[in-house]
Amino acid sequence: MSQYLAPLNDMKFQLFDVWQVQQHWQEVPALAEQLEPETAEAILQEAAKICEQQIAPLSQQADMTGVQLHDGVVTTPEHYQANYRAWCEGGWAGFSGDPEYGGMGMPKVLSMMLDEMMCSADIAFSLYPGLTAGACVTLQQYATDEVKALYLPKLYSGEWSATMCLTESHAGSDLGLMRSKAEPQQDGSYRISGSKIFITAGEHDLTENIIHLVLAKLPDAPAGSRGISLFIVPKLIPDAAGNPGQRNALHCGSIEHKMGIHASATCVMNFDGATGYLLGEPHKGLAAMFTMMNYERLAMGSQGLGAAERAWQNALAYAHDRLQGRITERDANKAEPIIRHPDVQRMLHTIQSLNEAGRSFSTWVALQLDKAKYSGDEQGQQLANLLTPIAKAFMTDLGLECTVHAQQVFGGHGYIKEWGMEQLVRDVRIAQIYEGTNGIQAADFMLRKVAGDKGAVLLALFAEIEHWLDAANPQHQQLAAYLQRSSVLTQSLLQRAAENKALLADYAYEFMTLNGYLLYGYMWLKQVDALERAEIAIETKHQKQQMADFYFKRILPRAEALLLIMQE
Amino acid sequence: MSQYLAPLNDMKFQLFDVWQVQQHWQEVPALAEQLEPETAEAILQEAAKICEQQIAPLSQQADMTGVQLHDGVVTTPEHYQANYRAWCEGGWAGFSGDPEYGGMGMPKVLSMMLDEMMCSADIAFSLYPGLTAGACVTLQQYATDEVKALYLPKLYSGEWSATMCLTESHAGSDLGLMRSKAEPQQDGSYRISGSKIFITAGEHDLTENIIHLVLAKLPDAPAGSRGISLFIVPKLIPDAAGNPGQRNALHCGSIEHKMGIHASATCVMNFDGATGYLLGEPHKGLAAMFTMMNYERLAMGSQGLGAAERAWQNALAYAHDRLQGRITERDANKAEPIIRHPDVQRMLHTIQSLNEAGRSFSTWVALQLDKAKYSGDEQGQQLANLLTPIAKAFMTDLGLECTVHAQQVFGGHGYIKEWGMEQLVRDVRIAQIYEGTNGIQAADFMLRKVAGDKGAVLLALFAEIEHWLDAANPQHQQLAAYLQRSSVLTQSLLQRAAENKALLADYAYEFMTLNGYLLYGYMWLKQVDALERAEIAIETKHQKQQMADFYFKRILPRAEALLLIMQE
């Protein structure tokens, strides 16, 4: 059984020492009123308690039990009821919600940390509140006040949950091929018909109602993805008083049997002329859904990090406990803990150096979103747009790599279910696939986010980082050299693409990954830079420097291969 | 349900065009008599039939059913009986066995191909005959004629199977810590007591008897791994006529629940004063067991390749079938097969270029073993020793990478059990762990195989390859440059290790991996070189060249990062 303790000290270090988010909070009246580092610490401690003590200890049981479907009713593992109640009673369901409708209005930098803890504790469980939080973002932005008042309080309290219904079996991520239809009714509502697959939490027993956000085409829809509209389709249609009323014409047709996240209900949802309500403008559903998708994509990165953090903690503990082999000991009957084996250290350091850079990276991205949301900071929004696909794809790729390393530390025991390490590998694998595969993220990064503005935002970011770098520091210089070569490469790729249309799509994955490694290098330098002002244990400072050194020596050179691949 | 067709054309190309194994066969009377390329082709075709038609179609069912333990009896999936019968009736169980005792005496270059096909078809099933074949190698080498005559014919016919019992729960790969005991009896036999874990095929219902090769310590054993002896401990003790007689005092205590290879019985085996017979000399059991381990380690590489081959075939077929997105098509309602997406091609090409180099590599290593075995070629044995840890570790690491890429091509469907892709990932993962973790392989390569002779064999190999390379060919030059840098690096590491003892163990993994990529580069150049003389389809030649180009452009640069990491 794998253990978990939330890395609160590192979270505080990232928030208050590295990124000094308290400076941004002070600039925003809505945040300054309720948030100081001490309050935030107390919040994180409370969330950690639930994750460590209630959710994490039963994640393995959830994996073994999975979800069951009988006569359209989906049953989750028994303890999920208690998990969910505890989560809602703690007020966590509405943590980042609009205070006007009962949300807590908390910034993304904190909700990201919650996401990570939840994903360490149990990815499958995290998806039930996670999908709801994403749907709320879309409702906050696109719904009328009346609709918000009807749905948001119930979703923030966790009494109701929500889904996003995009995928159809023949179309996958190609939403333009969608066949689901919406027919306008005399009362202003719509009749929604179609079948959606891979609907996370499409049906379950944790809430009294489920609000589906469904993409479908109106009769007069233009062809392709420009003709898609978004609809609110509740499982139980709210009555005039806002209570769950009539059962809507929709049902769960089947659930998928998957490699992992067994306790997450992945449903085929059939809409048989179900009553739906248009959300946002006709034919503009995709943009609205992307609000939700972008929110989810950042949370995906936390899945990679969360699983890798728990994997690392357990591998580290195992490496200290397990006696095998002799490194310094000469007595043939005495074994030493395997942590003294250099190769075990290599694996543990690889995970730790990637995890702590990842936590820094997600804090940085979240801070940009907060600046955009609370301060209307255009640059923050641009940066968040640029970095979101990296947060999704790069962090989940590393999530797989790191959980596999951690499993490897356990030797044969890593392959046995009992120890819980193989579950982390199986569970985290989905994060590279859903919410847009990592290949789609890479294309989004290269084609839209970089080529879309001729590299302006990326190159400006590089220039800003280079400006910050210290010419007298060898690691700073090492990163500066990489950034300069990457700038040249970026410009060269954009030029060469004029003559070779497929070039950018062809190199998209390597390009996304290259930028991931460079920015993680920046994260390590930012962390080292923060060590002076941080009031943290001297051993922690020592370890941070050691991990920075490890990253620059053993991980960052991967950028060299990627540069070489893409050079002309 | 995933499909499988044995890659017979590529196997023939590797055997007869690239490595021209027929030249070696002609030099060896025992082989020249019975083997010509045509016979070998017919043999491979027959093996392919069983793998394609009988074993592969039910591998998913085997995964779902798994093995069951009740009252010490292990039940395998029902169809495994038929699989096993077909395998034995085809004579495959004794394929590489000693003809004097009923084996077919076939060379390793062919049995490696069988291993690959079996692993594509069903890794879990492949382990039952696989362990037996490994045990036979040890018996052939260390048993007396009398013992050989008693056991080998039954093992070659498949009537009996065999195991290797090394691991104890507190010791893992640290065999020196072993506690199992062997007490000498008056009749020359021994009473074996102890508990072994992770015993593949330790108990099952496919054969009438199971012969355990058990490591244990004699009462006068020196401490550590120099005090270990090897014993034959049959489940049913053969009577005077060689038929299974009295039940021995050993039993399966439990079976493991694992991430994958569910239908392989991974047993805890308890020996309660069981009757055993010394195999080889007292205290020299480890060397004898290593004969078996080395055989198995090569077969592990085939597990990585076999799983990746099947994964690639299915991903390729899916990419042709699946319509999604538009690359050249402008009509928003018309989707194109995803194989036209450059990123899907990148994944497929990555797998193909690694698989075909891997098949070339394992043929090369197997040929060295054949030269050593049939022609007493000392250089062949040295080369096989050097390359075995790379075959085990590098090929299984790539097995995971490639099955993950193939699963990714399927998008969400890759995560669903129904499609069979996630099973390949789960099944292949064990190959990085068992038979000595890949970290242990890397240490073996760096510390024993390279540092052990001050780099002599490795550097001589590099020199030989460089000598063969064509100075006028840019890809040849590219590889030559890498080999020169790697030679310098190897010498530098060995020198630096004099002052820093942990250095070699620290860099062992990167060093092993670096050599893997360079040798795969050599494999591609050897394949391209063979294209002129090969009588193969022009499209195949074109594809081979394309894959070589892809490897040199997109994969080999990974060596750059590894060189950089290890440089001073």
From TrEMBL, chains A, B:
Q: What is the required cofactor set for this protein?
A: FAD
This protein's species is Alkalimonas amylolytica
Q: Where is the Acyl-CoA oxidase/dehydrogenase middle domain?
A: 164-272
Keyword entries, A-Z: FAD, Flavoprotein, Oxidoreductase
Enumerate the spans annotated as Acyl-CoA dehydrogenase/oxidase N-terminal domain. 38-159
Name one molecular function that GO assigns to this entry.
oxidoreductase activity, acting on the CH-CH group of donors
Which stretches make up the Acetyl-CoA dehydrogenase-like C-terminal domain?
461-566
Question: Does Oxidoreductase appear among the keywords?
Answer: yes
Q: Please indicate if the UniProt record lists Oxidoreductase as a keyword.
A: yes
The chain positions of domain Acyl-CoA dehydrogenase/oxidase C-terminal read: 284-443
Enzyme class name: oxidoreductase
Give the enzyme's EC designation: 1.3.99.41
Give the catalytic activity. 3-(methylsulfanyl)propanoyl-CoA + oxidized [electron-transfer flavoprotein] + H(+) = 3-(methylsulfanyl)acryloyl-CoA + reduced [electron-transfer flavoprotein]
Please report which protein family the annotation says this sequence is part of: Belongs to the acyl-CoA dehydrogenase family.
This protein's source sits in the domain of life called Bacteria
SUPFAM superfamilies per the UniProt record, alphabetical: Acyl-CoA dehydrogenase C-terminal domain-like, Acyl-CoA dehydrogenase NM domain-like
What's the protein name? 3-methylmercaptopropionyl-CoA dehydrogenase
* Function of the protein: Involved in the assimilation of dimethylsulphoniopropionate (DMSP), an important compound in the fixation of carbon in marine phytoplankton, by mediating the conversion of 3-(methylthio)propanoyl-CoA (MMPA-CoA) to 3-(methylthio)acryloyl-CoA (MTA-CoA).
From which lineage does this chain's organism come?
Answer: Bacteria, Pseudomonadati, Pseudomonadota, Gammaproteobacteria, Alkalimonas
